[in-house]
Amino acid sequence: MKKFSAFTSALLASAFLAAPVMSAELRIGLNDDADVLDPAQSRTFVGRIVYTSMCDKLVDIDQNMKVVPQLATEWAWSEEGKVLTMKIREGVKFHDGETLDAAAVVYTIERNLTLPESRRKSELSSVAKVEATGPLEVKFTLKSPDVTLLAQLTDRAGMIVAPKAAKELGANFGSKPVCAGPFKFVERIQQDRIVLEKFADYWDKDKIKVDKLTFLPIPDTTVKLANLRSGDLDIAERISASDAQSVKDDANLTYADVIGPGYMAMYANVNNGPRADNPLGKDKRLRQAFSLAIDREAIGQIVFEGTSLAGNQPFPSTSPWFNKNLPVPARDVEKAKQLMKEAGYETLDIELQHANNTTQTQMMQVIQSMVAEAGFNVSLKATEFATLLSEQTAGNYQLSRSDWSGRIDPDGNVHQFVTCKGGINDVKYCNPEVDKLLDEARTSPDEAVRKEKYDAVSVILNDDMPIIYLGHQPYAYAISKKVEGFAPSPDGMMRLLGVSKK
User: Fold this and answer.
1) Which of 49, 335, 377, 467 has a 20 to 30 A CA-CA distance from 491?
2) What is the structure's pLDDT at 12?
3) Can you give the CATH number for the domain in which 382 is found?
4) Contact 185, 471 (CB under 8 A)
């Protein structure tokens, strides 16, 4: 009997281990820590990763970068393109148990437009009025036609927050965010972790395959990969290109990557407070010289091992919106020196701030060495990413290295960064002609007309150079073989519905 019992116990234990079981937790290593967890206020890429699991939007995008239903099941434009009507999904609950209806959508959009701290104002600037025309129907009335609005609603501008919680917390909503996504907020410890748990009343709950998500900011890619191999992580996002082959060779891991629609860039403080009063901020010839001293193709080989795309515009060269009349410039140190001399300098000291993760640090060291040959003495200032963005907003920088994850409509890559009142215009660049062209590009349904506008803007920006575009990075993932159903999304987000863990 004892032998039989031991055998039976072992058999049962074996069967239990082999059977697929709802995992208690999926642990995800992020490249940075998120900033404030309020869709109206936030701006970080990793914040968007967290929101993808926590805050459903009116519409989403699919693997082909097409707009698809989420909280809105259908929508229609008026003939003149000034009215957008949306049907809201029935039976949706917020994480606090309140019902998501048309009134909640109206509240959120108005909050995005009026909250003093909101960064969504420029994204929704075409909206004159939003109103509930039924319990589950919303009507957007626009000041002028805006073909970009639907794309804006696939991101933070379209994330619907619980009115009760948002009214109670105001600008402090990010301390305890309440949305209507598959996972609800549990806790956040700055620089340590963000914890979400399965929302039992989610409208599409059958697709939730894990009970808990823990996001852990780990800027050092070597440490992040070591944690993945030890079992402390299940997915690591944006691993270093130098680690890609070792991941592919590891029988316990899976590698995946995708080139995003965004860009890597350096922001020059041209008019944001007292620190803009420096030669680089005041003289575009120095910014042009700095750009010419950079070998973008070499950066792609050295830092990204050939997996990135060199770039000089808000759109990658593979995009139909790329201005082919402005090809990515070859490095020209002599011309850079000539421009510096015209500006009255042989050498120039510059402080360049950047995020303290492995890849950015390596990239900035390479650029530091390149531009030194033209006479730029660059001192590097590494900082935590959310802090870097705060410093950019405050104007407490001279030159700042930051990424933008990109949007499906070209407007999302440029308008809010360079228009005079743009919500993320940290450089405080202001050119009425650029504003006019970009505002006109929003109103035309004709892609050829829009292309002319964006091409004209790219010529102006290439000359004024408030933003020095560097290229377009891949989003690379290392994934434990225990994880099933994960596929990288083209926008770099992590869509975890249907993802399970053995």
Assistant:
1) 467
2) 44
3) 3.10.105.10
4) no
Q: What is the pLDDT of residue 24?
A: 85
Q: Write out the two tokens for 135.
A: 């319990």
Give how many domains the chain has, as a whole number.
Answer: 3
Tell me, what's the pLDDT at 23?
53
CATH number, domain at 255?
A: 3.40.190.10
Give the pair of three-digit tokens for residue 264: 């890597």
- Whole-model pTM? 0.84
CATH code: domain of residue 144:
3.90.76.10
Burial 102-139 (b: 16+ CB within 10 A, else e): bbbbbbbbbbbbebeebbbbbbbbbbeebebeeebbbb
- Residues contacting residue 319 through CB under 8 Å, at least 6 positions apart: 261, 410
Residues 6+ apart with CB under 8 A from 106: 130, 131, 132, 138
Q: Is 401 part of a structural domain of the chain?
A: yes
The answer to whether residues 351 and 223 belong to one domain is: no
Do the domain assignments include residue 16?
no
List the domain range (segments joined by +) for residue 448.
263-472
Task: From residue 220, give the alpha-carbon distance in Å to each of 48, 184, 243, 361, 411.
Answer: 20, 28, 12, 10, 33
Q: How much is the pLDDT for 442?
A: 94
Kindly tell me the sign of the dihedral angle through the C-alpha atoms of 299, 46, 209, 160.
negative
Please list the rounded mean pLDDT of every run of 10 residues in the chain (502 residues).
42 45 82 96 95 98 92 94 97 98 98 96 95 98 95 97 98 98 98 97 97 97 96 96 94 92 96 97 98 97 92 93 96 98 98 95 97 98 94 97 92 96 96 97 93 98 98 94 94 95 93
Q: Taking every pair of C-alpha atoms in the chain, what is the biggest distance, in angstroms? A: 95
| Contact between 403 and 374 (Cβ < 8 Å) | no
Alpha helices in 176-239 (DSSP H): 221-230
